[in-house]
Amino acid sequence: MVCTDIDGDKMGVYVKADTTDGSGEIIVDRLEWGRGLVSDGDRFYYYTGPDIYERDLVSGRSRIVCRLDPAAAVYGPLSITKDGSTMGIYWRVGGQWVIGTVDVETGRVREVATPDFAEPYPIANHAMISPEDRNLLFFAHEGQTEYIPDRIYMADVRSGEFRCGFGQKRMGTGELGEYVGHEMWAPDGRQLYFVKYPHSPLKPTGVYRVDARNGEAEFVNGDYRYWHVAVSPDGRWAVADTTEEEEISKIVLIDLASRSSRLLCEIPMWKQHPGHPHPSFSPDSRKISFTLADEERNLRVGIIDITE
After folding, report:
1. Which of 67, 90, 164, 308 falls 20 to 30 Å from 121 in CA-CA distance?
2. Residue 6 lies in a domain
3. Sign of the dihedral through C-alpha 129, 200, 272, 125
4. Residue 183's closest CA among 213, 214, 212?
5. Are 110 and 68 a contacting pair, CB within 8 Å?
6. Confidence category of residue 103, pLDDT binned at 50, 70, 90
7. Residue-wise pLDDT tens digits, 237-271
């Protein structure tokens, strides 16, 4: 799935594209970029306002999954369990940010947490359901990383209780020493991967992972100035892009067994959305796709087969 023909308002066309011959089929027209999710069952989920929709990419059938309160606005990214039964979502009603889940079959929306973070950083976002446990999700306290003392939170869907998922360290002065973000589930749901950004005062910086149950964290790799990270479905690899001084980014493959890295390529990119590379794996863990910019600064999709 590709969002293409993005205009100045960041509205685009969602296309099911064939990577072998370049052909495509329009799935949704005129929808803001970043509003879609494809499940393991080849169903495309997207949202507009308070409504979430499903489009079967094989049969072409469409339906409304759920409708929230008309005053609500759903935000992305969406997330879904591996079995396709439950979505993790977040939305805003007035000034309140809400973390919740959706039963995909029945459309039942469940409010899990309303963190009520204080100004000037009130946003709770990035609600991602565990791929293997529909009763566990994480969310993020969004804001300027230098001023967010604890970004990652774990929430129990049944009880609504939430706790810090990674305790960020402070320096002797009391100032925050670790700036983190771009968290992502490991496919087995046991760990979260995230990036400790290169401008963090406390070292080492780079890719980390934390146990979802007990909060124990470990350093994975810090060979580059990492930015976003994703894990392969087979759990063997991680791929990350980097943040650099210029409008370029490196795509780096990390072997999770040896924790060694290999530079795959260096690409031009945009500093602003939607031009971040955001590399990710294909379902068979063989290919990596990412966004890049061409010589005219038009956005393109790059694909690397790591088996070649």
Report:
1. 67
2. yes
3. positive
4. 212
5. no
6. very high
7. 999 999 998 999 999 999 999 999 999 999 999 88
The single residue listed with the structure tokens 């999770």 is 256
C-alpha to C-alpha distance for 228 and 234, rounded to whole angstroms: 19
Nearest-CA neighbor of 215 among 169, 170, 147, 251? 169
Which residues, 6 or more positions from 115, have their beta carbon under 8 angstroms from its beta carbon? 97, 99, 124, 139, 141, 153, 162
In the chain, the number of structural domains is 1
Q: Which residues pair with 292 in a beta bridge?
A: 300
pLDDT tens column, 140-193:
999 999 999 999 999 999 999 999 999 999 999 999 999 999 999 999 999 999
Residue 26 lies in a domain: yes
pLDDT at residue 275 tops 90: no
Structure tokens at 77: 């990214």
- Of 166, 116, 173, residue with least CA distance to 145: 166
Asked if the structure places residue 27 within a domain, the reply is yes
Cβ 100 vs Cβ 109: under 8 Å: yes
Which residue range is the domain that position 16 belongs to? 1-33
Distance CA 241, CA 248 (A): 10
CA distance 151 to 46: 26
DSSP labels, the chain: -EEES--TTSEEEEEEE-TTT--EEEEEEEEETT-EEE-TTSEEEEEETTEEEEEETTT--EEEEEE--TTEEEEEEEEE-TTSSEEEEEEEETTEEEEEEEETTT--EEEEE---PPTT---EEEEEE-SS-TTEEEEEE-S-GGG-S--EEEEETTT--EEESS---B-TTS-B---EEEEEE-TTSSEEEEEE-TT-SSS--EEEEEETTT--EEEEE-SS-EEEEEE-TTSSEEEEEE--SSSEEEEEEEETTTTEEEEEEEEE--SSTT-----EE-TTSSEEEEEEE-TTS-EEEEEEETT-
